[in-house]
Amino acid sequence: MLDIFARRHAIPVYASGPRPRPFVLALTVLTEMRYESFTPNHIRVAKSAENFSEPMQLALHTGVFMALQSLPQKFPTILAFEVLLAIYIIWTSMHLTLRYKSSPALFGPLYLADSLTGFWSETWHNAFASPCQSIAYNPVRFGLPKYGVPVVVARSLGILAAFGLMAIFHIYALAPILPRRSVIRIGLFFLFNGVGTVVEAMIWGKRKHWIKAVLAWTFETLLATWTAQAAHIPNGLSKIPWRDICGPPSEW
Fold first, then answer.
1. pLDDT in tens, 186-212
2. Which of 128, 127, 81, 133 is nearest to 105 (CA)?
3. In contact, 194 and 159? CB cutoff 8 Å
4. Is 183 exposed, middle or buried (0-12, 13-18, 19+ CB in 10 A)?
5. What is each CA distance from 45 to 126, 129, 196, in whole angstroms?
């Protein structure tokens, strides 16, 4: 609702051909996973990811997930990558089922990410791109310079604000099903990613380099592993307590 209010002067509209009948449009809005698929939208797609087959990518990422399931599940790094892939698989499956014809891809191929900035703005799912921009980034980025804050500083603080919003959202969403220690660490995961993204931009700017990609993947892997250590992730699909998945955590 806050995002709709922030964008009240440019509400997204259906732009995929002639406007359908009201009940069809209502059904489309209800089932489409993100209204960023409408026009205008804030979705950024890397040039290398403009043309790819979502079903093929889903099959590829599912294969990698199943391969990881065959490995020992006691290592937090393996669990961290499995969570990453599980989110990709679940959300992409829903998107392929519910989207309308011209809806942009929800994810880019994960293996093409070559920076923290590219991962979060172009590769990872963009279902919350609009709220992050309208509620957090834009007010800070364009509001602070009015009070004399340098643009470069305001831009960095806007990025931190966007990641802070994601931290708050994930803490709120996961609090009913995870212990306090887990959700706090997940919140810190997003905050540290914000800091890492800002530092990366300060050092590298928009330049591409293999060292930049290696540092990004190393940072993300270490941070995800640290987060997974406190997330109480079951060791493999067979260990998930499905009957208790919606029950209240004992540590709250």
1. 999 999 999 999 999 999 998 999 999
2. 127
3. yes
4. buried
5. 10, 12, 21
